[in-house]
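Question (not urgent): is this output format expected?
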Amino acid sequence: MSGPPDPVPPRRGPNGRLALGLIGIVLTMVALSFAAVPFYSWFCRTTGYAGTPQVAKASTGEVLDQTISIRFDANVDPGMPWEFRPVENQMTIRIGETGMAFYEAYNPTDRTITGTAAYNVAPDIAGAYFTKIQCFCFTEQTLKPHERVLMPVTFYVDPGLTRDADTKLVKQIILSYTFYQTQPSKAQASLTPAPKPAYN
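Got this back:
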């Protein structure tokens, strides 16, 4: 004697298939957006797109007699209470020569604050030729209450700037930083002493 027939699975109508398709599209777009962030960062660093400076361990060694003016700009995000400024507003260096500039940061608050600096150069097309060797912007910076520090940046302008039809007329580059308050990394947090307990 045979048992009852197996239940027939419900058939998906057009609306069910459409919903599944839309969910698949959304999941694909989310996955691509996460992949796009590191790709965009790599693309900017490699090409200088959007005024992103390059990074190198040393200059090329080629120094031209031609000079260029570098202007320094400093900003803080509205949520960052630090005071931040360039020590000198402008310098003139030979193209290919290694230059060094200093920025000053001051924490006027009664608490330890960690920050990270975002940076770019203007005009954007000069980003492919403005190269940093060392910079405070490569790592987090932590300032104790009322601490004031000088932070250096070492850089050069690649001589290729003068051979590029789009940039050979550039006479001034603006290096701009914006500091944002961030949560300290574990390494930074371990350097910050824990607050002492208050006693009545």
